[in-house]
Here is the input.
Amino acid sequence: MNPLIAAASVIAAGLAVGLASIGPGVGQGTAAGQAVEGIARQPEAEGKIRDNRKQRILNTIRNSEELRGGAIEQLEKARSRLRKVETEAEQFRVNGYSEIEREKLNLINSTYKTLEQLENYKNETIQFEQQRAINQVRQRVFQQALRGALGTLNSCLNNELHLRTISANIGMLGTMKEITD
Here is the structure.
């Protein structure tokens, strides 16, 4: 039990018992004072006054016992409520801590998932950029190959065209020579 709460309980119990005993004490004092005054005024009624006084004292003691019992009962109820509240507070602390731990774990897991997704996005971006660079290199190589092939083709065509032109010219010269002969 919390020391502060235990101290407060002891103080409250002392105050309850003290206040419960003040009332009967004042009542007994008042009754005794009036009994003494009554005996002083009427000495012949001393027996009745003493009997009455005894009866009042007994009634006061009974009332004191009832008040004391009620105070003790209220104190026990207060202690019971205090225990119940302490139990609920402890459960709240445990549940609160476990809820905080659960939230912390959820946050950590969420962070790990986000990091994993970011890592996947990074890897996908790197692969995409690598593929793009490879495709650009292929395209440039293909373009250079096409230019080379086109140059070769043009050169071949020019050579072929020259050969055919020369052959055609030789053929025409040969035909002209035959005609002139």
Summary: The domain at 3-180 is CATH 1.20.20.10 (F1FO ATP Synthase). The chain has two helices and no strands.
